[in-house]
Amino acid sequence: MDRIDKHILRLLQQDARQSTADIADKVGLSASPCARRIKRLEESGIIANYRASLNKGRIGIGMTVFVEVSLNNHQASSIDDFEQAVQDMDEVISCHVVSGAYDYLLEVVSHDLAGYESFTRKLQRLENVKDIHTHLAIRQVKGGSELPIFSPSHSQ
């Protein structure tokens, strides 16, 4: 990845609806070479997908909650069952395996407190869930940020 590829990636993260001609103009290429670069970035998996960023408030999401989850055991089948259950819960918008005092950190959204309580009951019904700790997000300071594009010396 050279500096032009990185510039293209930054521009696409800012607004993926830009035309190839607009991107090409901003990076100093003609449209055809720019389109080839974008296609190569897509085919290599660097560009994973394109999506719209939605306004939570406008679609009725009033709460964001971070939930720490500890499991009773760490057998492969229990982990698989928990992770599949989380995949099937629409309220969970991200789930991370973490180190430390708990096993998973979930980011959960809900219309309101009653909706979150309903979600919590689903989570508590899972066999392998030992403990749940909830942190209500009061205000988002930063979010939906563009990913940094590191130099090749930082890549794996």
List keywords for this structure.
156 residues; alpha+beta; Arc Repressor Mutant, subunit A; Alpha-Beta Plaits; 2 domains; 4-stranded antiparallel beta sheet; 5 helices; 4 strands; 19% strand; Tscrpt_reg_HTH_AsnC-type_CS; transcription regulation; Tscrpt_reg_AsnC-like; ArsR-like_HTH; AsnC family transcriptional regulator
| Quaternary class | single chain
In CATH, the topology of the largest domain is named Alpha-Beta Plaits
Radius of gyration using CA atoms only? 20 Å
Can you write the helix and strand succession as a string? HHHEHEEHE
The amount of beta strand, in percent, is 15-25%
CATH class of the largest domain: Alpha Beta
Helix percentage: 25-40%
The number of distinct β-strands equals: 4
Q: What's the main sheet like?
A: 4 strands, antiparallel
Which structural class is indicated by helix and strand composition? alpha+beta
- C-alpha end-to-end distance: 13 Å
What is the name of the CATH architecture of the largest domain? 2-Layer Sandwich
CATH homologous superfamily descriptor of the largest domain? Lrp/AsnC effector binding domain/regulation of amino acid metabolism (RAM) domain
Uncertain residue segments: none
**Outline type:** elongated
